[in-house]
Design brief:
The chain is built from eight helices and twelve strands. The chain is α+β, with helices and mostly antiparallel strands and about 325 residues long. It has two domains: about 5-110, Beta-Lactamase (2-Layer Sandwich), CATH 3.30.450.20; about 115-320, Histidine kinase-like ATPase, C-terminal domain (Heat Shock Protein 90, 2-Layer Sandwich), CATH 3.30.565.10. The longest helix has about 45 residues, at about 110-155.
């Protein structure tokens, strides 16, 4: 039997290395996928993705030292292909022949499976985020209702009653939005007018909100939660009476948000977006939710130094740059 022909016909990538890890053979499957040949590959590590190189070096070192039992099997690495990299499961066998050691490596492309697992994990993370939004924002609404209800105990005031009605309406709308978000993904984003979103989010808060400029961004109904949480934080934790939002579009959409409240202590600025972090005894979910939602729209948010009040800068991709 012609074993070389057999290896060439295998529906998987096959490489044979000598005891010094010099490449002796790369079958046609590898050549088709990568454009590489045994003659062009001086070191098998040159085919490994830079981020996976430390893992590959450690694994290959143990295999050469006869400690392959200490290496994960199959070994999962990103390796070169035409136009980029692909995920491969790598299996191997050490063969002794004529007093020499040879290494037979078989590569199986599992890129689709890895991408599917990543997609599933992203969806699970999205579900967890929706749950966080629902619990956090509903709690805020109920707290608002409770506060105004206590004020009404001291005497009827039409303004307080209207605020309770607004909060109830906001709760109903939130539940509707969450229902829509349950079926939303990064592939089902649609344009939102930022000025309209911010003005809608400000309803129910005793604060002056000034919006300068305007732009549209691709998002889902979670964009309302972004600004509701920012405004809610400014009012409840910062005691703000005025919020200014400036919207500009250039290479990206930039949203500069600042309030006239007490601001955020300098010693915690690096932690404000952490899940569960709070200095006010709250759930610590508000800014975490904001960050996760903005990132899901392809954007970023950062906290900037300010002499007074809190200042955030949000960026989003330009509408025409999204495909």
């Amino acid at each position: 039997m012609n074993w070389k022909k057999f290896l060439e016909e295998l529906p998987a990538g096959v490489a044979i290395l000598d005891e010094n890890f010099n490449v002796l053979l790369l079958n046609s499957r590898i050549a088709e996928k990568t454009g590489l040949t045994a003659e062009t590959v001086k070191n098998p590590l040159q085919t490994v993705h830079p981020e996976d190189l430390p893992k590959a070096m450690e694994a290959f070192g143990k295999i050469r030292a006869g400690k392959e039992d200490e290496v994960e099997y199959p070994l999962l690495l990103r390796v070169v292909r035409k136009g980029g990299y692909q995920w491969n499961e790598i299996r191997w066998k050490v063969v002794e022949d004529g007093g020499k050691r040879y290494y037979l490596f078989v590569f199986t492309d599992v890129t689709q499976r890895i991408e599917m697992l990543k997609r599933i994990e992203d969806l699970l993370e999205y579900v967890r985020l929706l749950n966080s939004i629902l619990r956090h924002d509903i709690l805020n609404i109920l707290t608002t209702i409770s506060s105004y209800a206590e004020l009404l105990e001291d005497g009827f005031n039409r303004k307080f009653l209207d605020k309770i009605k607004e909060a109830v309406s906001k709760g109903v709308e939130l539940i509707k939005k969450i229902r829509e978000l349950e079926t939303s993904t990064s592939e089902s984003l649609r344009p939102f007018n930022l000025r309209d979103v911010i003005e809608e989010a400000a309803k129910g808060y005793d604060v002056e909100v000034i919006v300068e400029g305007n732009a549209s961004v691709l998002a889902n109904d979670g964009i309302y939660s972004v600004f509701e949480n920012l405004i809610g934080n400014s009012v409840k934790h910062g005691g703000a009476s005025r919020i200014e939002v400036k919207i500009e579009a250039s290479d990206r959409v930039y949203v500069a948000y600042r309030d006239d409240g007490t601001g955020i202590p300098i010693n915690v600025v690096d932690r404000v977006f952490e899940k569960g972090f709070s200095t006010a005894g709250s759930t610590g979910m508000g800014l975490f939710i904001v960050k996760k939602l903005v990132e899901s729209f392809g954007g970023e948010i950062r906290l900037e130094n300010s002499n007074r009040g809190a200042r955030f800068v949000l960026t989003f991709p330009l509408l025409e740059n999204r495909t």
